[in-house]
Amino acid sequence: MSGSSDKAMMEYLNALLEEEKKPVAEFDHEPVKQLLQKATLTREAPKPASEASPAPRAAPKPASEASPTPRAAPKPASEASPTPRAAPKPANEASPKPDAMQEYQQGDFQALFFRVAGLTLAVPLKSLGGIHTVGKISPLIGKPKWFRGIMTEREEKLQVVDTARWVMPEKLTPELEQSIDYQYLITLNDSPWGLLCEELVDSEPLHPDAIQWRKGVNEKRPWLAGVVRERMCALLDVNALITLLNNGSGHIQK
Predict the structure, then answer these.
(1) DSSP E strands, the chain
(2) What is the Cα gyration radius of the chain?
(3) Compositional bias (Low complexity) spans (predicted)?
(4) Torsion of CA 32, 38, 42, 48, to 10 degrees
(5) Edge-to-edge strands, sheet with 147-153
(6) Can you tell me whether residue 157 is helix, strand or coil?
């Protein structure tokens, strides 16, 4: 990136939280190969469907003897219908709440730093699903421009997001878009969503006080948890980001 491009990126990042401009900190751009290997192994560990094999044991055909359960729940038990209301499934909607980032304001946490189109982004390692080398991406018709398509990894279908187009659509000129060279796909939590990135920078602990946290709700960029001042990079609110991606939109980009 040229000096003018770097300056534009700094101004853009500052504008996210309406903060005065600060100088960019110099840091090593060497890819974190060890982190890549660790993240990949970590992701492979939970994926092995071999663990799913015990499922058949937990639900073998002999369980058909469970048919007597209807006797335990005869028609008169219809009064128990209110119980579903007390424990509705919508509770799973609580997982992708933007305020989940508050836990990271309680103490130090590890974060992965990566680059996209000259902009440095950070994601808490606890919210990292895994890191994969970019492979064949199959596009889908009728999807927004930021949705690159599906990438299959170990029989898992990952939904690929063009990070630059999602994060800074207003800055993505044809020239900048052509210069982007995505190398990795960073998956988010246990979701199928993955963010494309050009370069893995490094991983280091972050202190809550070193971050300018978002105050209230950022309607234009709900995915922005805050800005790491010293490194001039945006910290992603992964849960909020997953919610937006599941909804198919959520902010200014198209």
Answers:
(1) 109-116, 119-124, 128-133, 147-153, 156-161, 184-188, 193-197, 199-206, 211-213, 224-228, 233-236
(2) 22
(3) 47-68
(4) 110
(5) 128-133, 184-188, 193-197, 156-161, 147-153
(6) strand
What is the per-residue pLDDT for 203? 94
User: What structural domains and CATH numbers belong to the chain?
Assistant: 3-47+99-247 (2.40.50.180)
**pLDDT of residue 207 exceeding 80:** yes
In angstroms, the Cα distances linking 231 to 37, 96, 164, 228, 247 are 24, 27, 19, 6, 31
Query: Where do we find the tokens 């440095």?
Result: 120
Asked if 22 and 11 count as a contact pair (C-beta separation under 8 A), the reply is no
Tell me the backbone φ, ψ of residue 96, rounded to 5 degrees: -95, 50
Closest CA relative to residue 236, chosen from 223, 246, 250: 223
pTM (2 decimals)? 0.64
- Taking only the tens place, the pLDDT of each residue in 80-126 is 444 444 444 443 343 444 455 678 888 999 999 999 999 999 999 99
Q: Which pLDDT score, from 0 to 100, does residue 60 have?
A: 47
For residues 183 and 86, the answer to whether their CB atoms sit within 8 Å is no
- C-alpha 194/C-alpha 118 separation (Å) is 19
